[in-house]
Amino acid sequence: MKALRVGEARGHGARVGVILFFVTAIASAGDWPGWRGPARDGHAPANSKALETLPREPHARWRLKIGTGLASPIVAGGNVFYLDNQSDKETAHALDRETGRELWQTPVDDVFTDSQYAPGPRCTPLVDGDRLYAQSSKGLLRCLNVADGKQLWSLNYTQDFNAVFIGERGAAQGGHRHGFTASPWVDGSRLILAVGDTNGAGVVCVAKETGKVLWKSQNDRVANAAPITALVGGVKPKQVIAFTVEGLIGLNLETGDLLWRVPLTSTFGRHVSTPTVVDNVVMVGSHMRGTIGAALTLDAALKTWSASVQWESKECTLNFASPVAVGDCLYGLGMTKNVFCLEAKTGKTLWSKTSLISTSAEKAHAGFVVVGNNILMLTDTGEVILFAADPKEFRELGRAQVCGANWCNPAYADGKLFVRDAKELVCVDLLP
Question: For residue 179, is pLDDT > 60?
Fold first, then answer.
């Protein structure tokens, strides 16, 4: 049966087109459905084709002019979703993945403005099954129907949880200053939200189907780092790991109870890097503290967790680019514009490579995607570089220009890279 494209059919045919879109989204969801991919760790799906080199001039399958924003695109069920600024509204869009044809758009919230970047959304949306979760910079979360963009339910962090949003004024910190940029995360039936404030709702867990609050935990203020869930050491239940203004915390996924805490602070609460876990070591970083590895230990008799800083690295200081782990190694971008590889257990620098990033150190950014044994890095000037995940040395395998200047992570699915800059969203073929 030939699938209908939304906008090409009328009457009954239009309804069939929407149904086909809905079924496709459910059947193949999980390509790159949220911030940093299907497992929130920067790894492409396990069944992805190997990427051994890059074409010199990658073919752009389609290009689409879009509004401003820093929210990364995502791919799920044969479709692409993104947020941008349309007429001073943070707006969610759904596109046909093959053609770039728009299927629907839905306003999310009034746009947020500060001195960091042009007005626009900053939080990457998330697709889970037939639902899309879009969070605005001002803390309005909308759960939308993937098929047509219609709202199913919503939560307002300032109204429903008494969270504070100040904007770029005075000594405001973290999300209070630059917006609620920490993308939500789904684990099973639970939706994890970085709400963040001193009212017992630092992290909130709701039922993903209804938005009903299941638990609220801690008085931590929200930073700009997305929360993750992890089964540390194979010990149940899973943990919610969040990097807040006050530090790094682990919570019981089922109850929200605090399991451990590592206090970490910095000027303006600028904690941006998504936590990365290797075995029992959780790694984060900030421009002031450097990169740290926190070791988690379980007292089996008491059934309690403890956490302590096992190592610190100033040489490989993370700023606002999130790293990726391959094997026992962490690969990322340091404050001296150095792409690095360090040992996750010890923090030892295995290699450090400069000259790959040309912007100023304080503005340097890179988005990392692990594809098999290799790593794709999208630089903030729109160049993509492929290098080997090799702890012995930096080995470049190819590079190509794919878009303009940006601070957005790419999405990768089925050999295609989806990237955005200040003007366009582009789908690029990286495989023959």
Answer: yes
Q: Are strands 79-86 and 424-429 parallel, antiparallel or unpaired?
A: unpaired
Which CA distances in Å does 358 have to 94, 95, 368, 419? 33, 33, 17, 19
Q: For the segment 345-391, what is each residue's pLDDT rounded down to a tens digit? A: 999 999 999 999 999 888 899 999 999 999 999 999 999 999 999 99
Q: In this predicted model, what pLDDT tens digit does every residue of 58-101 receive, in sequence order?
A: 999 999 999 999 999 999 999 999 999 999 999 999 999 999 99
DSSP string, 156-215: EHHHHS------SSTT--THHHH------EEETTEEEE----SSS-SEEEEETTT--EEE
Pairing of β 396-401 and β 411-413:
unpaired
Average pLDDT in the chain: 91
CA gap 229, 187 in Å, rounded = 7
Nearest to 37 by CA among 48, 52, 27: 48
Report d(CA 194, CA 164) in Å as an integer.
Answer: 13
CA distance 297 to 43: 26
Q: How many other CB atoms sit within 10 Å of the CB of residue 360?
A: 9
Encoding tokens for residue 265?
């602070």
